[in-house]
Design a protein that fits this description.
seven-stranded mixed β-sheet; alpha+beta; 7 strands
């Protein structure tokens, strides 16, 4: 994948050098989070924000990763069949994922998702699945196309088992 100038984009940990002021995905809570809160969350170890940087230095998108726990009873029966009967299981939260409007439709969303899944699967911290909370129907459909399954009673909350993600990178 090459950006508009021809060089491959890169994913970096969010830093002070990344200009967030002009970022606009079209989803105000995601934009506000990125411009105002993402740096604070990184400094306080509440989330790990990553940015997609184009060859000209522009930030085309971002996502965050953090740890979460899922109540076993929330998951579909098929997903818990082989799990220990703990009340909660560890998971990785893909808390936010957004692409700037100027760069939407270029495959960067899938690129960032693949990067997030790769980072989650190579982590040494135990995690049963990657969990997302879709902000709207478009986001929900995006994750479903990428093999995420909805929680039975929460259609906007989806997950993809880590065992499935591991197969992507073998």
């Amino acid at each position: 994948m090459a950006d508009d100038i021809g060089e491959a984009p890169r994913v970096e940990v969010l830093g002070a050098q990344h200009d967030r002021s002009a970022f606009e995905s079209g989803v105000e809570p995601l934009d506000r989070y990125f411009r105002v809160q993402a740096g604070q969350d990184a400094r306080k170890n509440m989330a790990a924000p990553f940015v997609l940087v184009l060859s000209d230095g522009a930030v085309a998108g971002y996502y965050t990763l953090s740890w979460t726990a899922v109540n076993l009873g929330e998951l579909p029966e098929k997903a818990v069949r082989k799990l220990p009967l703990y009340p909660v299981v560890p998971a990785t939260l893909l808390g936010r994922l957004a692409i700037d409007r100027r760069h939407q439709g270029k495959g960067y969303g899938r690129f960032l998702l693949a990067d997030a899944l790769f980072r989650a699967v190579r982590s040494e911290i135990a995690s049963f699945a990657v969990v997302v909370d879709a902000k709207d129907e478009n986001a929900r459909r995006f994750y479903e196309r990428e093999s995420f399954f909805p929680f039975p009673d929460q259609p906007m909350k989806l997950f993809r088992p880590m065992a499935d993600i591991e197969q992507l990178f073998k």
